[in-house]
What does this fold into?
Amino acid sequence: SSGINAEWPLRPGTIVASIFDHLQMLLALLIVPLFLRTQALNDNATSDIESQISELKTQLREESLDLREEMYSILRGGGAESTLTAAVRDLVKEVKYCQQVILEQKQQTHTFQAEMMEQIQDLKSYQELLPRIAAQQDWVGNVIELMRSEVRLISQHKLAWTNTHIGPYQADFIVDGVYTLSKDFAGVNPFSHTQSCSTTGNTLMIDLGGLFKIHTVKVWNRLDGWQNSAIGLFLYTDEELIGGIVDAKNLYNFAVKKYVFARKIILKQSLARCIHLLEVQVFGSGPFGHKEEGEEEGLEKLLAYEM
It folds into this structure.
């Protein structure tokens, strides 16, 4: 067995031949001494020796057959050769699995590359659109600046409020855009009318909905009489006093001679009289955004720019 282990692994035919060589050598070593001994023995012991040799040959043949059967059993499915075959089989399976994984990774890589190329094409398209978008932004910015710089009517159809009103003559008529020379105040030319005419503090307010630069305010008095009720009115932009009414007439123009920014236009009656006006028109430019911290500084910069 030491010879087999020293030369393993060998092919099956080589293993069987080596075993038979060893058996023949062993048989020779056993037969030669016995033969020499038979020369010294007499003729009476020859038959016994030949019988023993025959038994020994039979024993060796049986052992050889057993060894051959064991070797064939090893080659058919057991022992080290079977373990090696199983290892090779597992290795083949693992190699096939790795090949499948590599193939899937390759397919995923191709898919990812295709998606990236599509995204790159989209980015190129967007990049080509950037100059057009920038030009449109400039155009919109110019339009906004033009709207801000343009003096226009900014009070029509804005929110209006009075502290009281009589009948259907609510504050909404102040900003409805209807101001004609008709005296039909109950029909085509309605006006706003507060309820109490014997107390002071009657107030009318227009919410402009944003911060505007105020240029001119026009106050249209009622035309069917009672124009003296407008005397005593004071006009405010937010909390800043712009002017007051001291006489009776159809139309009052308050031209703002300095830079005034406001969100609300307020008319307050200082005397015990009603407020019944046909229309209030506010002209200005803007809007300039919502009031935040630092607005005063921003307005100062805007004023400095416009100057």
The two ends are 115 Å apart (CA to CA). The helical segments are 2-7, 12-40, 43-77, 79-149, 295-306. The chain is about 50% helix and 20% strand.
